[in-house]
Design brief:
Layout lengths: L4 H6 L16 H26 L6 H12 L2 H32 L14 H4 L1 H21 L11 H9 L2 H28 L8 H27 L9
Helix pairs in contact: 2-4, 2-8, 2-9, 6-8, 8-9
The chain binds protoporphyrin IX containing FE (HEM).
The site of protoporphyrin IX containing FE has 19 residues, from helix 2, helix 4, helix 6, helix 7 and helix 8.
Length: 238
C-alpha cells in the first residue's frame, strides 16, 4: 500500500513501516498514565485533607497553615503545575481509552447486564466529569473568591465557614465528596490491578483497602461542611 502523508501521520505505522508501539500509544501505556496521574491526584487529596482538617483547631491555626503555604511560592506553584499536568493527562488517557473501547464495540449491547462490575466502576465516566466540575467551582469558591459567598483573601477559615453556612452549597460539597470517593475507590482498585496485584488470596483485602481509604477520605472532607452546618465550626470573630 502506498503511504500517503495522511495515513502516515494518523495511523499506527512508523517511518520504517514498523508498528508504532511507543508505550503511551498502547492501551497498557494509557492505563499506566491514568494510574500514575491518579496516584498523584490522590496524594494531593490526602495532603489537602490533612491541611483542611486543621480547621477543627480554630481560626488562628487554619489561617496560619494557609499563610505558611502561601509563603512557599515554589511549593505552591510546583504543586499547581504538577496537578494541572496530572489532571490533563488523566482526562486525556480517559478519553483515549473510551475511544478505543467504543471503536472495539461500535454497536452497543442490546441489553447490558453487568456481571462483575461494581456500581462505582460503571459510574466512572459520570463521576469523573462531575468531580472536574466540582473542582472548577471549588477554585472559584475558595481560591478566587467568586463562588457567591463572603470571601476575604486573608481569612480562609472565614471563607470556608461562610461558604458552608449556605445549605445547598454544603450539601453539593457532600454529594461531590461522595462521588469523588466512589471514583477514588474504583481508581485505587484498578491501580492495584494494573500493578498485577490480582490473586484470590489478597484480592478481597485490596478491594477492602481501597474501600476503606475512599470512605476515610469521604468522611474527612464531608466532616467540614457538616461541622459548619451543625455549628461546631463557626465564625467566632470576623
Ligand atoms: C470540604 C472539603 C474542602 C475544603 C474545606 C477545601 C478547602 C480549600 C481552601 C480553603 C482552599 C484555598 C486555599 C488557599 O488559597 O488558601 C482550597 C484550594 C484548593 N482545593 Fe480544596 N477543599 C476541599 C475539598 C477539595 C477537594 C475534594 C479537592 C479536589 C478534588 C480540592 C482541591 C483544591 C485545589 C486544587 C485547590 C487550589 C490549590 C491552589 O491554590 O493551588 N479541594 N481548598
Amino acid at each position: 500500500m502506498e503511504l500517503t502523508q495522511k495515513n502516515m501521520s494518523t495511523s499506527a505505522v512508523g517511518i520504517a513501516g514498523a508498528p508504532n508501539l511507543r508505550f503511551w500509544n498502547t492501551t497498557n501505556g494509557k492505563k499506566a498514565i491514568m494510574a500514575v496521574t491518579g496516584v498523584i491526584l490522590a496524594g494531593f487529596l490526602v495532603g489537602h485533607l490533612l491541611g483542611n482538617l486543621q480547621i477543627f483547631l480554630g481560626r488562628d491555626a487554619f489561617n496560619r497553615y494557609a499563610e505558611n503555604l502561601h509563603n512557599l511560592p515554589a511549593l505552591v506553584w510546583g504543586t499547581r503545575v504538577v496537578l494541572l499536568l496530572a489532571v490533563g493527562l488523566h482526562i486525556w488517557s480517559t478519553v483515549q481509552l473510551a475511544d478505543r473501547k467504543s471503536s472495539a464495540r461500535p454497536v452497543a449491547y442490546q441489553k447490558y447486564t453487568p456481571q462483575t462490575s461494581t456500581y462505582a466502576s460503571r459510574t466512572m465516566y459520570m463521576s469523573g466529569p462531575i468531580v472536574a466540575a466540582f473542582i472548577v467551582y471549588h477554585l472559584m469558591h475558595f481560591t478566587f473568591g467568586t463562588g457567591g459567598t463572603e470571601y476575604h483573601y486573608y481569612d480562609p477559615y472565614g471563607n470556608v465557614v461562610a461558604g458552608f453556612k449556605v445549605l445547598p452549597i454544603a450539601l453539593a460539597y457532600v454529594v461531590a465528596m461522595g462521588l469523588l470517593s466512589m471514583h477514588l475507590r474504583h481508581g485505587l482498585w484498578s491501580f492495584f490491578q494494573s500493578l498485577g496485584l490480582n490473586h484470590p488470596a489478597y484480592t478481597p483485602k485490596l478491594k477492602g483497602a481501597a474501600a476503606v481509604i475512599a470512605v476515610l477520605i469521604f468522611l474527612g472532607f464531608a466532616s467540614i461542611p457538616v461541622a459548619v452546618l451543625l455549628g461546631a465550626v463557626k465564625q467566632d470573630i470576623f
